[in-house]
Amino acid sequence: MKPDVVLTSRLFARTQERIEAQFTCHRLYEAADRGAFLKGLSGVRALATFGAGGADAKLMDALPKLEIISNFGVGVDAIDLDAAKKRKIIVTNTPDVLNDCVADTAMALTVNVMRKFPQAEGYLRAGQWAAKGAYPLTASLGGKTMGILGLGRIGEAIAQRAQAFGMKIRYHNRNKKDVAYPYDADAVALAKNSDVLMIVTPGGAATDKLVNAKVLDALGPKGYLVNIARGSVVDEPVLLKYLQEKRIAGAGLDVFADEPRVPPEFFTLDNAVLLPHVGSATVETRTAMGNLQVDNLLAHFAGKPVLSRVV
Ligand code: 8YV
Question: How confident is the model at residue 53 (pLDDT cuts 50, 70, 90)?
């Protein structure tokens, strides 16, 4: 008999296929009445979640036999980890397999916001090259400093790439690491010492609006902000105002505070490059993430230790 698993949302197609082949899946996202649907599932021991779908204490209480929550994604900020710990529920995520793609996205945003390639392409497509002449000059990456806010595994992958572009690296973490990069004591100091502030820190209460007006003031009118982490880390209305008033040079954003809703005022900014949270969105990486999500569930049901445990 296949074990049961509750799915909070539809998964990436290949993962959905694999999970349905291995488990009896209960699709919470299709239930018209979630309460009634969950009542029939009180014996289910596993839950699969997808990014922002997460899992709160109420959902955990509705599944009293729950032993494991397997998340698709490295960020588990949408899962109530304290509630899971209290109930002795294992939480797993999908680290490492996405480092390269997310780091590629971080560099693409850095290059595009500094060199204004999307805007330059728009200029060409609008026939303005021939009509008005060369596109205005932009800013070089080489010799500039990237300040990494959250130097974990993804941050390290970004640092390697940025150095290949000729950039210098500094960082801030809650705890200083045993690395060669200069350390700044807080986000304000890091922003002050950086041309590009790269946000890689996890989301959640501990980092909520960590990048605020003070940090953006320290970054200054020649500084760029790139965020591939979570929209919650930035005070978004303040960022919008700073971009509109050119109090920072520009921003490259893959994440927003209330995805998939993005305040439309962002759409008219000529100093922002905006992506719809595609950091890890390649077939290869999403397949690897989905496989790890399913492998964690399979390990648990085989009585083995899970592969990537958060709590
Ligand atoms: C995922 C992410 O796309 O891993 C993460 O934390 O933000 C992304 O890689 C996301 O979790 C799925 O919604």
Answer: confident
